[in-house]
Specification:
2 copies of one chain form a homodimer. With 391 residues, the first copy, chain A, is of the alpha+beta class. Chain A has 2 domains: 99 residues, Immunoglobulin-like; 237 residues, Rossmann fold (3-Layer(aba) Sandwich), CATH 3.40.50.1820. In chain A, the strands form 3 sheets. In chain A, strands 12-13-15-14-16-17-18-19 form an 8-stranded mixed β-sheet, with helices on both faces. In chain A, α3 packs parallel to α10. The longest helix of chain A is centred in the N-terminal third of the chain and has 25 residues. Chain A is globular, with a radius of gyration of 24 Å. The interface between A and B is large, with 50 and 50 residues. β12 of chain A pairs antiparallel with β12 of chain B, so a sheet runs across the interface.
C-alpha cells in the first residue's frame, strides 16, 4: 500500500513537473518587435523583452522548419496558409548568429541582415541590451570607415582592410593620430568589428562625451590556415604538439609588420612610434595579439586581449622587454566564459592579470556580465579599452 | 490511308522535336567553376562557359528545390544523399540577382555573397563577361570607399552614404577634386554602385591607364516613397495622372541639394562650382538625375542617365538653361532594353539624344551589347561616362 501511494505521488509530481515546464515554455511575453538587424521593410525576425527570437517564413510544402540559434534547434509551427512561425528560448543580450533549417536545408533567414561569422555570410540577430546606448547610432560627429585595398608583398596578393578615422580627421588636416590594430575572431573577417562590433559607433560616442582620445582603428583579416605538412622534414622527436600549432600566427605577424603597418603609416596621418601604436583582438585575434606583442613589444605600447587568453609572469620571462615597453595591458572575458572556462594552456586569466598588476604592470581585468564568447562581451571590452588607450 | 500517314509523320516530327529539346537541354558544358560571388571556401554556386548557373544544396527532407533566376524557376534534382543540384539556362554576361525555393520557401543561397537589390539583401551571381577586365581587382593604386554617416536636416534623421576618393587623394593633400553624385536603381541602395557596380574598381583601372580624370564619387540612398494622399485636398480635376507621380523626386532632390552637397563640400577637398559637379544614375537613379538636373542645371555641368530615360528638345523648352549649362549629356541602354522597349513617356532615347546633338549639345548615346536592364549595362555605361566627364 505504501509502495502504491509512493508510486501515485511520484506520478503526480512528474505530471506537475511536466505541466510546469509546458506552462513555462508557453508563457512567452507578446511584446515582439523587429530587431535592429531585421532588413528594412521586413516584419521578421523579431525579439521580445525576454530576449526570445521569433522568426516567420512562408514554406507551404515544407514538412519541418526550425530556428537554429545558440546551439539549439527550435521547431516552428505551420498555420493554415503554409506560414511557419516560432521562437527561441531567451537569448543573452547582444548579437547572435543563427540560421533556419527547412526540410534539412540550412539557410539564412531571408528577413535578416547578413554578417560574416562562423566561417560564412549568414543571419545575425541583435537582442537589445540594457546598455545598448554606448553602441547606438546617434546624432554626434561620426568618423569614417574606409575600405582600403592594398597590395601585400608578403602574400603576393591584393588585400583589403577597413580603416576608421575619427570625426575630426578630415578637418584637422595637420593633426597626427595614434593607431590601434584591432583583430576579429576565428571564422570572422575584417568586416566584423564594424558590422557586428560597432567599434566605429562606440568610439564616435566616447569621443562625443570626451571619454576617449581620438585614434585610428585598422581592421584587417587575420584568418590563417594550417601550415602544410612538410614531407621532407619529419616531426622532431620529443617536440610537444600544442594547439594552436607552433608558428600559427607568423603569417599574420609578417603581413602586419611588413605590409599593413607601413601601408597605414604611409597613407594616413599617424604617429609612428610604439607609444602611439596598440594591438587588440577578440578570441583568435586576442591570441594573435598575445603572440605578436610578446614577440615584438618594441612595436606596441598597448595590448588588449578580449576572450583570447592572458599573459603570465612565466610569459614575461620569455619576453623580457614586454613589461617595460607595454604601458597598458587589458584582458577581458564574458562572465559566462569564466563560469565554464575552456581548457587553456595559459592559466587563469584573472590570476595571471593580478600577478602582473602586483608586479607593477598597468594591467586591467574586465568582465562583461551575463554574456558568453560573443560580440556583446567584445563590444564592452572594446569600449573599456578605448577609454584607457593612448592616454 | 493518307490521313494515317500524315498522323504518323506528325507523331514522328513531334518526337524528333521533343528529343531535340531534351538533347539541347542536356548538352550542358561541364566546365563549371565557382563565381567571383561565391563565398570563400564554398564550392557552389558555379558558372560555366555558357553562362549557366549551377547551384547545390543539401536538403534531405525536401520534396522540391528550385533555382529562381532571371524570372525562371529551374527544378533541381536530388541525389542519394539528399543533395540537390541543377543549373539554369545560359544567362547574360554580368551580375544577376537570384534565390532558391525550398518546398515553397524563397531563401538566399547559403553559398553566395549577398547584395541589396530587388528590395532585399539576397543572393547574387557574377557570370564572367568577355570584357570583365575593366572592373577587375588589379594591382593598381586604389581609391578608398568610405562609409560616411551624417545628419540630414531635411529628413531629420541620421543617414549614410559611400564616398569614393581617388588613389592620390590621401597623398596630394592640397589638391581639390570634382564630384560625381551617382545614384542606384529602384529596390537598391547606397551599397549598389560599389558592391554590384564596382564603380571604384572601374575608376581605379581607368585612372591607372590615364583614361579618366580623378574625381570623387558620392553614392547615397535615393529610395523614395509615394507621398501620402492628402484627404483635405482632392485630386484636381483635369490633372493627368502620370507615373512616376508629380513631385516623386522632390524628397531626394531636397536631401541632395540641402544636405548631401553641402556636407560633401565641407568634408572633402572638392571644387564647388557647377563645372566640377556631375550627376548620374541608373534606372530610377537616372530618372532622378533627369528631373533634378532639368530643374537645377545651374548646379551640374555633366549629366548621365543609364537605362533611365532621355532628354528631348521638348524638355529643353521647359528648362531653358539646360542646353547652355550642361557640357556633357550621356544617355545609355542595354541592347536588350532597346529590343524590348518599355513604354516610356519620354520618347525614343536614341532619337532624342541625336536631336540634342544636332542642336549643338555634347550629347552621347551608348549601347551595352547583349545586356538587359542589369548591372553589366550600367558598369559599361559608367566606364564610358567616366572617361568623358570633367575633361
Amino acid at each position: 500500500m505504501k509502495k502504491l501511494k509512493n508510486k501515485v505521488l511520484f506520478i503526480f509530481l512528474v505530471t506537475v513537473f511536466i505541466n510546469t515546464i509546458c506552462i513555462a515554455q508557453e508563457s512567452v511575453i507578446e511584446d515582439f518587435v523587429t530587431s535592429k538587424t531585421t532588413q528594412e521593410g521586413k516584419e521578421y525576425p523579431q525579439v521580445n523583452s525576454e530576449g526570445r527570437v521569433r522568426v516567420r517564413i512562408s514554406a507551404p510544402e515544407a514538412k519541418k522548419v526550425q530556428l537554429d540559434i545558440g546551439g539549439v534547434k527550435y521547431d516552428l509551427s505551420k498555420d493554415g496558409n503554409g506560414v511557419w512561425i516560432g521562437e527561441s528560448a531567451p537569448q543573452d543580450e547582444g548579437f547572435h548568429y543563427y540560421q533556419l533549417n527547412i526540410d534539412g536545408a540550412s539557410v539564412p533567414d531571408p528577413g535578416s541582415l547578413y554578417f560574416f561569422g562562423a566561417g560564412r555570410w549568414g543571419s545575425g540577430i541583435e537582442v537589445p541590451a540594457k546598455d545598448q546606448d554606448f553602441y547606438a547610432l546617434k546624432n554626434v560627429p561620426h568618423g569614417e570607415v574606409r575600405e582600403h585595398i592594398y597590395f601585400s608583398k608578403v602574400n603576393n596578393s591584393t588585400r583589403r582592410c577597413f580603416v576608421y578615422t575619427p570625426p575630426e580627421y578630415n578637418e584637422n588636416t595637420s593633426e597626427k593620430y595614434p593607431v590601434l590594430y584591432l583583430q576579429h575572431g576565428g571564422g570572422e573577417n575584417e568586416t566584423g568589428w564594424s558590422n557586428q562590433g560597432h567599434a566605429n559607433l562606440i568610439l564616435d560616442n566616447l569621443l562625443a562625451e570626451g571619454k576617449a582620445k581620438p585614434f585610428i582603428i585598422v581592421m584587417d583579416n587575420g584568418t590563417w590556415r594550417m601550415p602544410k605538412k612538410s614531407n621532407s622534414k619529419p616531426q622532431e622527436e620529443g617536440v610537444k604538439r600544442t594547439w594552436p600549432p607552433q608558428g600559427w600566427a607568423d603569417g599574420f605577424k609578417n603581413t602586419l609588420i611588413k605590409d599593413i603597418i607601413p601601408m597605414v603609416e604611409a597613407n594616413y596621418r599617424t604617429f609612428s612610434d610604439a607609444s602611439n601604436r596598440a594591438m587588440a583582438g577578440l578570441s583568435m585575434g586576442g591570441m594573435q595579439t598575445r603572440v605578436i606583442t610578446l614577440d615584438r613589444p618594441d612595436l606596441f605600447s598597448s595590448v588588449g586581449m578580449f576572450s583570447g587568453g592572458s599573459i603570465s609572469l612565466e610569459d614575461l620571462k620569455k619576453s623580457p622587454d614586454f613589461k617595460e615597453k607595454v604601458k597598458l595591458l587589458f584582458i577581458s572575458y564574458g562572465s559566462r566564459e569564466l563560469e565554464n572556462p575552456r581548457q587553456s594552456s595559459w592559466g587563469d586569466p584573472k590570476e595571471n592579470t593580478q600577478a602582473l598588476k602586483d608586479s607593477g604592470m598597468n594591467a586591467h581585468f574586465h568582465v562583461s556580465q551575463l554574456t558568453a564568447h560573443e560580440w556583446q562581451s567584445w563590444r564592452r571590452a572594446f569600449k573599456e579599452f578605448a577609454t584607457l588607450v593612448f592616454k
